Prior knowledge:
Elements (H helix, E strand, L loop, with lengths): L1 H11 L1 H13 L8 H13 L5 E3 L3 E7 L7 E7 L26 H17 L7 E7 L8 H7 L11 E11 L3 E3 L2 E4 L3 E8 L3 E2 L9 H19 L6 E9 L6 E2 L2 E10 L2 H21 L3 E7 L5 E3 L1 H15 L4 E3 L10 H4 L4 E9 L24 H14 L2
Parallel strand pairs: 3-4, 3-5, 5-16, 6-15
Antiparallel strand pairs: 1-2, 2-4, 6-16, 7-14, 8-12, 8-13, 9-11, 10-12
Helix pairs in contact: 1-10, 2-4, 4-10, 6-7, 8-10
Amino acid sequence: MILDAIKQKSLAFHADTVRARRHLHAHPELSYQEKETARFVGAELTAMGLAPVAAADTGWVALIEGKNPTAKAIALRADMDALPIEEANAVPYKSKNKGVMHACGHDVHTASLLTTARILMDVRDQFEGTVKLLFQPGEEKNPGGASFMIRDGALSNPTPAGILGQHVMPLIPVGKIGFREGMYMASCDEIYLRVIGKGGHGAAPDLAVDPVLIASHLIVALQQIISRQASPKQPTVLTFGKIIGEGATNIIPNEVNIAGTFRAMNEEWRAAGLQKIRTLVTGLAESMGGRCEVEISRGYPYLENNPTLTRSIRAAAEMYVGPENIVDLDITLGAEDFAYYSQVIPASFYRLGTRNEAKGIISYVHTPTFDVDEDALAIGPGLMAWMAVEELRKR
């Protein structure tokens, strides 16, 4: 009975979910700057009769209590921040904030969880326990808003038995839901190298210490950490995407700056790999007459989907959308600060299909043309509500 009620409400609220999503999409805000977004979310929660509590500056925590609220708690999380991308879509809800865009679907996540809350409020007399809602800032920027939510007590009073996170997936057709047990996403650390030499005339390199040459050797040599020092069984990536050397055709600069990312799926190897990077670049730069300053910005840990919880919500999803609409996810070297929650309590991060080739909705996340098939917003809210209710039912 409650499954049917949730499905009907998810469909009935679809237009409202779309309106909320479009409002958020048109007014995106960068990580840790989500003040208007937080104001909108807070007002929506309050209008439902909830009493949201601030966390992580621009985040919210709210409780929906069913019968016997102390029986068990489950947490649901949505992220709210946008990206520094200029939107290229010609849609009525195009971003009004220049250079800022919801290019990762966080507008979808937030609007969907708001409707999930509305559904759960309507059926709260039909389940036992408490659903904890987490609306989180700063997923896109180190150190990750999830770490601040945890710091501010989002996983206590009550402590949830588990937490669910939903994320759009433009590689999966709308109507499909993706799951993976165990190791799923990578840790993510930012590497900044300042290669310092001695500038000079391009025609007299013997009088200089060329940081461009040193930087070139460093980038090539660092790949041996991946190809020869990492286990072939251990997924890992080291990518440098930015090199700045302010010289000219006949000018050797004083320094070159390099920026990149190191990703791993094992915390011990992550720590060892970062130390190997530091040791190699400092030693090699010195051997070539220069020096290298290393700055490592520690990012998110790797994400492990609790097998028991993931298996459980997958079974619930099969009941909601049918087993033919469930897909298996492969590991990805992408990163998510939802991983912080998985270090504290059982967690599962699943994917909501948003692709529709017939409508031309095929762009990947973090691109100027990213968009979603909003038919997914008829599914996502109810699905999350149903999975939460099912988890509360299990003792």
